[in-house]
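=== RUN LOG ===
request id: a7f3
mode: sequence -> structure
chains: 1
length: 392
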Amino acid sequence: MKRALVITLNEVKLYLQDKGDLAFGLLLPILTFALMYGAFGSNTMFTATANIVDEDKGAYSQQLIQQIDDVDGISVNVLTAEEANAKLEHSDVLLALYIPSGFSDTLAGGGKAELTFKQRGNGGLEGQILAGIIRGAAEGINQELLAQSQTEAALAGTGITQSNIEINVKDALNNERLSPTVGTTEEVIGGSTQFINQYLPGIITMYVLFSLSLSAMAIVEERRRGTLERMLTTRLNVSELFFGKFLATIARGFIQTLILLVLSYAVFQLFTPLSFLACLVVSIVFTAAAGAIGMIIASISRTESAANWIAIVVTMFMVMVGGTFFAASEGSVLAAIGTISINTYANKAYSAIISQGGSLGDTWSQLAVLAGVAVVGLIISRMIFRAVPGSK
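=== RESULT ===
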């Protein structure tokens, strides 16, 4: 056992000294993490700029612009008609709102006024959302005018002045906006709303599997060059050599996982200390299962190219069907196929801890499957590993 650990430590040392392996195994996960932080680390609220042409400059047009500007995430950019037309012509903006002259006077006189949307094509997804928000703000003004006219009709002949009616109606509507009769709350089903929680497990498992190709290629190269055979001329036996290589493969994958988990713990604060330790346990078991598959690939391959391609095919298959970036519907064909992917069980275990706030006890079934794959895979790979590793 001590000799196997010596081999493992030496392999890890060589791995950390190899700039190529480090660039792929360590820097690439860090780069991916940085992209995740840029994409999901900031506010996920919808943000956009509403381009508005105000040819009215009256009380109701100003009220409409203010209500649009008050919407969280929406900023207002007031343009002249010439500026808006030029930007639309050059596709600098895809949608602009035009408030016609006389808009406020028409509404004040009890008439019907029209707003105009000018857009390029369908206005784009952002433009369509903005148009819906603007229509909602306009509908608020409609309700205010309707409430005022109905109140005036109901109080006709009572001696109450129109200005008092307007003031009281506006106060009542403002109070309703601040404290609506029908409120809304959000209830999240199936975990946190943070996208990082959804994608972190898939990123972790994907990079561990990608390290299979490096590990398998290294073992095949050593066998082809006779390095393994020369090592067996020492006091090492085949089992110690094989187990040392297996532990080295686990160490590579675990280092990658540890980096992403530490960064997630420090930057996103996704974990408690206990959940972080639970994720480390899941990582060890998963990397053992992945390492066993890597040893099978190394045992059956006779060239580095073959090991590389087999590892890539296995990795992409497991990533695609293992729920790495999208979950398969229960009972579907894809879900049934996904049961043969170790990513399925690792992703479920990570998600149970990271997204759902579970404990290690909630992942015992997934860990049992991964541990079984590690044991069975190690036995199979050992059986097909040649007694004389340098033979062809």
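=== NOTES ===
The longest strand covers residues 48-54.
The two ends are 28 Å apart (CA to CA).
=== END ===
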